[in-house]
TrEMBL record:
Stored Pfam families: Arm-DNA-bind_5, Phage_int_SAM_5, Phage_integrase
GO biological process, one term: DNA integration
Membrane-spanning intervals of the chain: none
Organism expressing this protein natively: Hoylesella timonensis S9-PR14
Family listed: Belongs to the 'phage' integrase family.
SUPFAM superfamilies: DNA breaking-rejoining enzymes
An example Gene Ontology molecular-function term: DNA binding
Protein name as catalogued: Integrase
Length: 368
């Protein structure tokens, strides 16, 4: 890639109080990477006497002019190396937390959790210049021993710490791509290895058993069974709008949504039975009145009433959907698409669960 050669000149501008401000003049203009505006001037924050009265003031002027010339040389070298980040002269002093928070606006909720943990870790202040390998390693240790944000008496799980640190490293990668860092800090960081966790799920019979059990909160029951029939996450069900429903070419119902977690555009066929759980067609949110708080104790009470003792969470309904589909013969590629997984390898764990179930089934019949 070639660039037009830019000439850099130290210039002077008279200001108040018998002073002169020194600035650099770029010709042709160069683009400021932060504002994306073309600019010809960079004020250095260096001032000299307009009319030096004595030897000391003249010597001061010479020193300041030499400093300005030294900066000019650095800028010329940067231009030659195509390092245009110098145009933001406070780049190292720029607010890393503000950058982090800005990134969270277009990401899922986990990014906000990671931001809050990092904010707590650095006590609310951090510049780009302070983000180095040592700081990132200390943040890794912090996550391994941190408490939950909502429950300060409970530690965050190892897998949560792993996910949070992975997100943080993703932020560092973006910042490096955006030229806020001179090198990719991730090259020197070790990830937090997650541990295998048993995925709890319901069998088809248990889902039927749950469906036959009354629930004190009808909207919770409808949303839960809808999750079992579609595999949708709680975040997507909470945000589901009637406008998201459409009629597919085969005349069946489908959902056209952008998933909250992965921001994946997806068209997902659903059964008429799942559609019926949504109630009478309306406008706005489908499951009106559904709140996250319902998926804690109210859900546990309903499961207990149904005689289900497994530690099932609302996310367990998504696991149930995957396991039931695979156990009924649906190929793993189709299940992966329905779950909006980016990689089939993520879905493979459900196939492994089914294999375990097959082994349990095989051992149930014995002639001894």
């Amino acid at each position: 890639m070639t660039h037009t050669c830019t000439k850099v000149t130290v210039r002077q501008r008279a200001i108040r109080n018998n002073r002169i401000s020194l600035y650099l003049d770029y010709y042709p203009a160069v683009r400021n990477p932060e504002t994306m505006q073309m600019s010809r001037r960079e004020y250095l924050g260096i001032y000299i006497y307009a009319h030096p009265k004595n030897e000391m003031e003249r010597e001061f002027n010479n020193d300041m002019l030499n400093k300005a010339e030294a900066i000019r040389c650095i800028r010329v070298q940067s231009l030659i190396n195509e390092e245009f980040g110098f145009l933001d002269k406070t780049k190292q002093k720029a607010d890393f937390l503000a950058y982090f928070k800005k990134m969270c606006r277009s990401k899922d909720q986990k990014w906000t959790f990671v931001y809050q943990h990092f904010y707590n870790f650095v006590k609310g202040q951090c510049t780009f210049g302070e983000v180095n390998v040592d700081l990132c390693k200390k943040f890794r240790e912090y996550l391994l021993n941190a408490k939950q944000l909502k429950h300060s008496n409970r530690p965050i799980s190892l897998n949560s710490a792993s996910g949070y640190y992975s997100t943080f490293r993703g932020l560092l990668k973006i910042a490096y791509r955006d030229k806020w860092f001179r090198e990719n800090i991730n090259d020197y960081l070790d990830k937090i290895e997650p541990q295998d966790v048993k995925k709890e799920y319901l069998t088809l019979d248990e889902v039927k058993q749950l469906a036959a059990t009354p629930c004190d909160m009808p909207v919770l029951k409808a949303a839960s069974l809808f999750a079992c029939l579609t595999g949708l996450r709680i975040s997507d069900i909470l945000n589901l709008q009637w406008e998201d429903f459409a009629i597919a070419p085969d005349q069946g119902y489908c959902l056209r949504i952008r998933t909250q977690k992965t921001q994946t555009e997806a068209t997902l066929p659903i059964s008429y039975e799942a559609y019926e759980l949504c109630g009478t067609p309306d406008t706005g949110k489908v499951f009106k009145g559904l709140k996250r708080s319902m998926i804690n104790y109210p859900l546990k009470n309903w499961l207990k009433k149904a005689g289900i003792t497994k530690p099932i969470t609302f996310h367990g309904f998504r696991h149930s959907y995957a396991v039931i589909q695979i156990s009924l013969g649906t190929d793993i590629y189709t299940v992966s698409k329905m779950l909006t997984h980016k990689n089939v390898s993520t879905t493979q764990i459900y196939a492994d669960l089914v294999n375990v179930k097959k082994r349990e089934t095989a051992n149930k019949i014995s002639l001894k």
